[in-house]
Specification:
Elements lengths: L10 H30 L4 H26 L18 E3 L4 E3 L4 E3 L4 E3 L4 E3 L4 E3 L4 H29 L4 H8 L1 H7 L4 H32 L7
Antiparallel strand pairs: 1-2, 3-4, 5-6
Helix pairs in contact: 1-2, 1-3, 2-3, 3-6, 4-5, 5-6
């Protein structure tokens, strides 16, 4: 049921997991304690309302992410048939017979039941047992990113001058963070706003793509 090896397997997995895990609390803090109080004030009924919404979204994002991360969807420990049935195949690496739509992952080093793809951000394969949590993660992640981007748009409008220099700082926040002469914290806020937009677009596209595949009864390899 649970994965035995939870540590990332590759450098790409380590980087992606570290980015994802660190951004959850950072974005929550930024929205709840920096952006939202800018419009509604601090410690009042409206702020508490948005704090509850933000916390609800965070719990669902993190909860589904953890479920995807820890649930084992491989053939390890599963009782599989010893007979080569129609459309079943023998995996020479795992040395066992695997059911249809199972594929061997070179990163996880095992066969995955109903394998869709290997996700670097969760350092595991998306398959039969964790795909529903993956889809719910993408859904709540996208909704959260839209929620953040909506308020961040007004925040950016307040702290960005729409000159050539200001636009460069907005669209190249990381470079401006290193080489710019603005206040460090403002440049960091711009970077977080851009990351929210990137997350919104990426999450929405991935959710749509995988949703279409599910509705068609297909996995990524098909």
């Amino acid at each position: 049921m649970w994965r035995k090896r939870l540590l990332p397997k590759t450098i790409a997995d380590y980087a992606a997991v570290l980015l994802m895990v660190s951004m959850f609390p950072i974005m929550y803090w930024f929205e709840v304690f920096t952006v939202i109080p800018l419009y509604f004030g601090d410690r009042n009924a409206i702020w508490i309302f948005h704090c509850v919404i933000s916390t609800y979204l965070l719990i669902n994002v993190v909860g589904n992410y953890v479920a995807v991360y820890v649930i084992d969807t491989s053939i390890d420990g599963k009782f599989l048939s010893s007979e080569l049935r129609p459309k079943w195949k023998f995996c020479e690496i795992c040395e066992c017979i695997t059911p249809p739509r199972s594929w061997h992952c070179n990163v996880c080093n095992t066969c995955i039941l109903k394998r869709d793809h290997h996700c670097n951000f969760t350092s595991c394969c998306i398959g039969h047992y964790n795909q529903r949590h993956f889809m719910m993660f993408l859904f709540y992640f996208t909704v959260s990113a839209i929620y953040c981007t909506y308020f961040n748009a007004f925040f950016i409008w307040k702290y960005t001058s729409f000159t050539i220099s200001g636009l460069l700082k907005l669209f190249l926040p990381l470079a401006a963070l290193v080489f710019g002469n603005d206040v460090f914290i403002i440049q960091l806020y711009r970077l977080l706003c851009v990351l929210a937009v990137v997350g919104m677009v990426a999450g929405g596209v991935l959710f749509y793509y995988h949703f279409i595949n599910i509705c068609s009864g297909m996995v990524m390899y098909e």
